[in-house]
Amino acid sequence: MAINYLVFPYRSYFFKKNYGVSVRDLQIIEVLKRRNDTGKLLIVDRPLTVYEASLGRITHEDNYIKHISLDLIGPLKGRRWTEECYTELKPKLLSSISSWDNVVILDFTPIANIHTIKIPHNFYWYDLIDNFAIHNRFTEIEKELVRKKYKKTSSHADIITGVTDQALSSFPQGKKHTITNGLYDVGNCLTNSEPEFKYGFLGFLTDKFDLAFIEQLAASDPNFSLVIYGDSYDKLLVRTLLRTPGVTLKGRFKKDDIPNLMSTFEVGLIPYLRSKSHDGSPLKLYEYLHYGKPVLTSIDYEITGDSIINYNHEGIENTISRLKDLLNDPRCSQHTKAMLRNEDYLESKIEPVISKIRSSLEIL
Question: What is the pLDDT along the chain (364 residues), one digit of tens a residue?
């Protein structure tokens, strides 16, 4: 029995083109594409604005529904526009799936009203991606729209998945299923070059970045040097980092760049302010460990072990001392890689959900 997926991603084709398959929704989509029990898979991107279309952001891939919205006022609302912007896609959408059976709607959108009751389908899978109800980049009005979406999916979805039990705490017990992030299509080797930097960070720079810790680490570790790869959404943070001795900012990267980037530093950082963090299961945690990089983190996640140090528990001096012992051990990289298991791959993590979908479809 083939399963046909109608997918509403959070990240657009344009994001994928710029950054690669580097985030949860795009990774789950790619895993589903490769499965033998997947029949058709159609991606319904958010409609492009006239301005976006003028910049050439139209995709030419066959498995996308392409649409340019002529609404000139709605996009001025930012994320709030996405609540109803998919409504104008309905004719194209219904025509595209008119001959389908075993239809699964997979929805990653935090605000959009998909109107699933008007779309013929057999199963509705909603994935939070993140806990947008507490997202540091969302306004209070946008967070209220997220809560509205979550309340609706609680009633209509057949299964609701998220990265942590806490993110799913408000959803019905019989519908929710935790899927932490996992390994996806990581390269198997590093370049042979010696690391240029002691510390490294891969990801977007936002106001949840723990700048105070970086400054403290720079002042306390005589061997401090830090390279940061990723776009920034906070100009003040960037200016401060550029003034911090030993910090180098490299800017945007793509998923395919990661093996080479990992070879440039010894220790991976996940320095997020606990008061602003919404990342219950960072993808970079798995990537650092896969490449044998010990991790300094501010928060305890689903994987723990000697190669992961929570600097909020240890204090700066103990953190540096423990890290020195780790890096002096010639087996450090080998032991760090061994912390990951086969079940930590994303393919394994979504298997229980696919099994539930198959069981539901077989009953019909």
Answer: 899 999 999 998 988 988 888 899 999 999 999 999 999 999 999 999 999 888 888 877 889 998 899 988 988 898 999 999 999 898 999 999 999 999 999 999 999 999 998 999 999 999 998 877 677 778 899 999 999 999 999 999 999 999 989 889 889 999 999 999 999 876 665 555 789 999 999 998 988 899 999 999 999 999 999 999 999 888 899 999 999 999 999 998 988 888 899 999 999 999 999 887 766 788 999 999 999 999 999 999 999 999 999 999 999 999 999 999 999 999 999 999 999 999 999 999 999 999 999 999 986 5
CATH number of 197-337: 3.40.50.2000
> Residues 301, 250: contact at Cβ < 8 Å?
no
The pTM assigned to this predicted structure is 0.90
From the CA atom positions of the chain, what is the Rg in Å?
22
Task: Map out the domains of the chain as residue ranges.
Answer: 3-181+346-363, 197-337
Give Cα separations from 127 to 3, 40, 273, 328 (angstroms): 18, 20, 25, 42
Nearest CA to 25 among 130, 148, 138, 169? 130
H helices present in 35-89, as ranges: 50-54
Q: What is the number of other CB atoms lying within 10 angstroms of the CB of residue 168?
A: 22
Q: Domain 3-181+346-363: which topology?
A: Rossmann fold (3.40.50)
Q: Buried b vs exposed e over 240-278: b needs ≥16 C-beta within 10 Å?
A: ebeeeebbeeeeebebebbbebbbbbbbbbbbbbeebbb
- Asked if the domains 3-181+346-363 and 197-337 are classified in one and the same CATH topology, the answer is yes
What is the token pair recorded at 224? 């401090």
- Residue 64 CA to residue 41 CA, distance in Å, equals 9
